Amino acid sequence: MGTGRAHAKAILLGEHAVVYGAAALALPIPQLTVTASAGWAADGDGQGELSYTMTGTASRALVTQASDGLRRLIAEFKARLGVAGGPRLDVLLDSSVPHGRGLGSSAASSRATVLALADLFGHALSEDAAFELVQTAENMAHGRASGVDARAVGATAPLWFKAGRVEPLRVGLDALFIVADSGTAGSTKEAVGLLREGFEAHPGARERFVGRASDLVRDARSALSEGRPEDLGARLTEYHDLMRGAGLSTNRIDALVEAALWAGALGAKITGGGLGGCVIALARPERARQVTRQLHEAGAVQTWVVSLKGLDNHAP
């Protein structure tokens, strides 16, 4: 039996623009985890096949979607090791990451599975090799995946990501991020298609979107490292306005953003591909309770608090 673990993530800024080569900032959510267990079928039947079971919060749709990606991932893993045939693999995934919320559920499931397989086969897997394998499944799930999810679900600190390169972010402030689930699943593929249609219909729209996103990511990174929470919060809200202007938000998401700001959050935005999913809000510790309460009153079905103080934030 081999085991592997991964966790959720949230995009702070950079959604969609990251696919076009811009940078993005990502936050690990360590309390939302996926644990994979991989072993050989007890009956020895089903040569070379895969038995896949998921428990936890996932829906039946995720089981079907993830199973297709994981079959491809396992085939790629075996090819990398030169393994042919063998008895049927049994993979059990226990996930607390809600599906379709922009929290990296598919990437976390894939990473946990990759690490479980490496453990099962006694194979030392580099971080880059794990990333490449997770991307195999991510590209099946989302089409053209930027790679930020595949990196962030294994990160121990906030990350800067651009074109496959990652750097840990220096954190110079003591604040909390509150992630609020709207209760409605988003669709990255649908959002990507909607944005592309808008770019094609309006000459120069893509350049304006990516340029504005890049400016906000750069400013937010500086505010995070230099300890300017108000500026970081303002950039979050401005990025939400960018996403909303592109048609990627919803009335429910907008209501949660407004509720967080009304309760004293320094900034708030949609996180992930859009058309549903989650909101992420930045708050000072003394305001976190009020912001969380107001998010629930505005319709959030669940919330999670991520403290920057609890993450490895000693990046240079």
Automatic annotation (TrEMBL):
Residues 221-299 form the GHMP kinase C-terminal domain. Its EC number is 2.7.1.36. InterPro entries: GHMP_kinase_C_dom (IPR013750), GHMP_kinase_C_sf (IPR036554), GHMP_kinase_N_dom (IPR006204), GHMP_knse_ATP-bd_CS (IPR006203), Mev_gal_kin (IPR006205), Ribosomal_Su5_D2-typ_SF (IPR020568), Ribsml_uS5_D2-typ_fold_subgr (IPR014721). One of its GO terms (molecular function) is mevalonate kinase activity. Its main location: cytoplasm. Residues 73-150 form the GHMP kinase N-terminal domain. It is found in: Cytoplasm. Pathway: Isoprenoid biosynthesis; isopentenyl diphosphate biosynthesis via mevalonate pathway; isopentenyl diphosphate from (R)-mevalonate: step 1/3. Belongs to the GHMP kinase family. Mevalonate kinase subfamily. This is mevalonate kinase. The gene is mvk.
